[in-house]
Amino acid sequence: MQNTGRADLHIHTNVSDGFLSPAKILVKLKNSGISTIAITDHDSVAALDNANRRSSMFNIRLIPGVELSAEYHGKDLHFLGYFIDHHNKRFLDFLYLFRRRRYQRAQGMLEKLDKLGMHITMDQVAAIAFNGPIGRPHIADALINAGWADSRDDAFEKYLGYNGPVYVEKYRITPLEVFDLIHSIGGAAFLAHPGTGCSDGAIRELHGAGMDGLEIIHPKHTPEMVEHYKSLADELSILTCGGSDFHGSPDEEDVIGKYTIDEKSVDGIEKYCLSKRKEWRVDVKDYPD
């Protein structure tokens, strides 16, 4: 049967920095015209089994995904992995390490906040994160709850942003390590939202290092940018994807159903992964404890 529906391949749940559970996201998708989604939480696949059990009740096809960060020439880039084996033990061990480093980073930011007279406990932040991976958005929410910020944007501008007084550098790996990790679990690696700060030259270099595709449809991409990245992907003969980067924040534009790709493109990504898996049997180096 030929797929003719729409797909959103960039959705976050409350196990990372999203606001809604997988169940609430599936309810929100009703009547959106979307028939396929990828849940791509930061450094976590904890929502996937829950979502997979429920997705069939909503006639939604679920693609297992993840979003990982890497440092490239001093910039923080995000990469999306699709059709991954999210039960792979070694991969789960790596995610545990990333989450532990996130926890240590959060501790450092809370210590800096404390020195500024703003006492927030790790228990408070962990509760906001539903005991999942902790990130700056969860600390922002704790600041809002305590009355020290009006919104996440306000918290980042005052305290948590790159030039903010409590900012702490994150644990970083390289794009090549991200590609090898995603490939080792059978998935394809895509650069997320390139229009937010990645040059065409860097995209060409990343492709040469093993990147499989570009996210061209994204809320921060203008129609002109979409066409540009589509042309660049055609030039490089790489895959394309797209999605809403949905988080479900009360401050967020209602993006569900507005940033999608056709299901034929999703089928193409799946076929590509199946064709490359023998080649992708790589030995990923162990990360330090």
Show the helix and strand layout.
Layout: E1 6-11, H1 22-28, E2 34-39, H2 48-55, E3 61-72, E4 75-82, H3 89-115, H4 122-128, H5 136-145, H6 152-160, H7 175-184, E5 188-191, H8 200-208, E6 213-217, H9 223-236, E7 239-242, E8 261-262, H10 263-276
Parallel strand pairs: 1-2, 2-3, 5-6, 6-7
Antiparallel strand pairs: 1-8, 3-4, 4-5
Helix pairs in contact: 4-5, 5-6
How many helical stretches? 10
How many strands appear in the DSSP assignment? 8
Distance between the termini: 47 Å
Please, how many domains? 2
User: Structural class given helices, strands, pairing?
Assistant: alpha/beta
Order of helices and strands: EHEHEEHHHHHEHEHEEH
Q: Write down the Rg.
A: 19 Å
Instruction: Report the uncertain regions.
Output: none
The percent range for helix content is: 25-40%
Task: Report on the biggest sheet.
Answer: 8 strands, mixed
Please describe the structure with a list of short key phrases separated by commas or semicolons:
single chain; 289 residues; alpha/beta; TIM Barrel; DNA polymerase, domain 1; 40% helix
Structure overview:
This protein is an alpha/beta fold and 289 residues long. The protein folds into two domains: 6-87 and 173-276, TIM Barrel; 95-160, DNA polymerase, domain 1, CATH 1.10.150. Helix content is 40%, strand content 16%. It has helices at 22-28, 48-55, 89-115, 122-128, 136-145, 152-160, 175-184, 200-208, 223-236, 263-276, and strands spanning 6-11, 34-39, 61-72, 75-82, 188-191, 213-217, 239-242, 261-262. Strands 7-6-5-4-3-2-1-8 form an eight-stranded mixed β-sheet. Helix 2 links the parallel strand 2 and strand 3 (61-72). Helix 4 crosses helix 5 (136-145). The longest helix is centred in the middle third of the chain and has 27 residues, at 89-115. The protein is globular and about 55 Å long. The mean pLDDT is 92.
